[in-house]
Specification:
homodimer, elongated, about 50% helix, DNA-binding, 10 strands, three-stranded antiparallel sheet, five-stranded antiparallel sheet, 13 helices
Amino acid sequence: MGKHTQLLNERSLQLLKTLVERYISDGQPVGSRVLSKDSDLNLSPATIRNVMADLEDLGLVHSPHTSAGRVPTVSGYRLFVDNLLTVKPLNTQELSHLEGSLSAQHDTGHMIGIASRLLADLTQMAGVVTVPRREIVCFRHIEFLPLSHNRVLVIFVTNEQEVHNKIIHTAKLFSPAELQQAANYINSIYTGRSLNAVREAVIKDWQDDRERVNQGMLDAVTMAQQAFNQDDLKDDYVLVGETNLMGFSELADRDRLKSLFDAFYQKQGVIDLLDQCMKADGVQIFIGEESGYQAFDHCSLVTSSYSVSDEVVGVLGVIGPTRMAYEKIIPYVDITAKLLGAALNPKATPPL
Amino acid sequence: MGKHTQLLNERSLQLLKTLVERYISDGQPVGSRVLSKDSDLNLSPATIRNVMADLEDLGLVHSPHTSAGRVPTVSGYRLFVDNLLTVKPLNTQELSHLEGSLSAQHDTGHMIGIASRLLADLTQMAGVVTVPRREIVCFRHIEFLPLSHNRVLVIFVTNEQEVHNKIIHTAKLFSPAELQQAANYINSIYTGRSLNAVREAVIKDWQDDRERVNQGMLDAVTMAQQAFNQDDLKDDYVLVGETNLMGFSELADRDRLKSLFDAFYQKQGVIDLLDQCMKADGVQIFIGEESGYQAFDHCSLVTSSYSVSDEVVGVLGVIGPTRMAYEKIIPYVDITAKLLGAALNPKATPPL
DNA sequence: TTTGGCACTCCCGCTACAAGAGTGCTGATT
DNA sequence: AATCAGCACTCTTGTAGCGGGAGTGCCAAA
């Protein structure tokens, strides 16, 4: 438990809890009188003021000005979500809606979009889902097509139906027939393995082939090496409902809104952030400045990693103002992650 | 010439011109005193006030309130851009920057992104480029891969290196070998033709093959028919620099901004609008409500279609507030369209 | 330790007022 | 007939003042 839970007695925590809840629902600084009525403890406003002074000393709450109520600080929110939160399980209607929408019937790309849309609609904030990581994708098929200038268009299919393509430059000019042969060769020996496994095998085979000096195979493997070079298989995410964020007063400032949206389009920062979330499994929360990214200063990010076959492959979540209904958002994110993972499970989809 | 140019004398037009120019550069309603100094005609403010009253009667300018200067209306802007505008050719530095960035060295997808980015950076507004239309694309290669449940993953390549994929459902279950054969058949007879031509040929051949009852070919052509069904080859565009629009006071209203961005993400409305622009060749301008789309009410759209081999294949442009520097934006858009068209010209890229 | 009381601070909305900018109109000038 | 100076009028903008309300901090009593 954090340092604060030891320093503070039960009563102070109870008051902090009601304060945060009240602030989240109203958006107004909450004063001692309201708090006195709202909490079940029978305390006078005066007593509560004393407690508030203590909480302020600890940096858990903050007064916008002398004569306003108190507002939770980032630490206050943090203590709240870590120790005081009572999550509200989602009702059966919402649950069945989620289950219905996330049943395994579309391809991965669609599923990600659907999950993102669901999160955005459910929370009225922005939903984000990363595309599954490459480690678990399974290589299925490759094709080489000649372009001009020693360039070759590589098309490869992973998993069930995901198509990737890139252009590689070859040292020498290959005829269409040679390319066809190379593709056949690669398809015949690597199909079915994971991309990572293929990548490793390719490196190993390249050395072997070099010794055996079989030019055709060597060419094929050389091209495969380029094709599966992971550097330009960039991580990516699908973001939906950004515009929902425009309504929040926390983002009323034009510059703040602009830098947030710039970060969305820039992508790299968000990817890094989501990457951190993926490491911790289960629900992960960044409140305000905790993320370390200026653009997210007044936002919170609630994420959960999602897994296929017990392996974490991606992360999804919700972006909104720090003042969000965590007790509802957290279960939304949690369940969506579980359902998405289940829906993407290849075992669930019938074999070829 | 429009009705107004006949009704109005030279002087009034001259004044309208300076008014619009002044308003565009300052963003403030412009009054008679400023106008008197700004215009070369030696007129007293009083005289100008008379002229302004006339222009207001004609609906070309408008007073925000009794004692403010005048602001151009949509009709005012229209008259300005149609008849009064003196375009500023871009300087050699800008021109060479454009030419350098848009030289034919990347694939189509990249080029579109680059053009969009250039427009956004140059104008500090939002740049948009539609992806080239399918009519002129040239079919190159097709591949069928079996999925579960009679579903087939179709991958086809057009032009130099554009890869498309979709999933079709087949009436019966095909073996991988059969699919391979079908692909070979289609590749052998349709490669090199335009997609439209292929689409037509496929329909014709399907009828012929049916009579000849060659089952293999019939299957192949049936699948090709599904693959090239144009219904789900949706038009699309690349939009860059949306966030630039957040700075403009015209879009300060949160709801207005939201509905604009919603339209961007929705895409269909914007596509329809851009489609209209494509019909008129050369530069096309929608000012404010002229577009007919609520979300664009306070925006202007300056577009130009771009052509490859003398055939219009797409449209690009700039989205910004009605109060934009048309005299600079128009040449930007114009030149970018020409350069993009040239860069995409297949003749410019060496043959295979 | 809790509580009522009280003075104090600060925000917010309202009003008033003066300055500034620009207009419309009128009547004189050319 | 066109132009223009002058003037009264309107409307915005900024500033200042004022009262009410909300909430605090502190103190002294229970």
